[in-house]
Amino acid sequence: MKCILNATGLPLQDLMLGASVYFPPFFKAFALGFVIWLFIHRLLRDRIYSDEI
């Protein structure tokens, strides 16, 4: 049986391969930083928005 979705050498496949190699580490770092920011912001929110600063 021949695979219809075999698109060897097409720019789209190269783009998808590049995305799978380079995108996830950046996305993981961004997501981790966002979660850390959410946690810190939740802890310091009252102090940040109070008039005592």
TrEMBL record:
UniProt keyword list: Cell membrane, Membrane, Transmembrane, Transmembrane helix
Domain of life according to the entry: Bacteria
InterPro entries per UniProt: DUF1656
Listed transmembrane segments: 21-40
Protein name as catalogued: DUF1656 domain-containing protein
Species of the source: Salmonella thompson
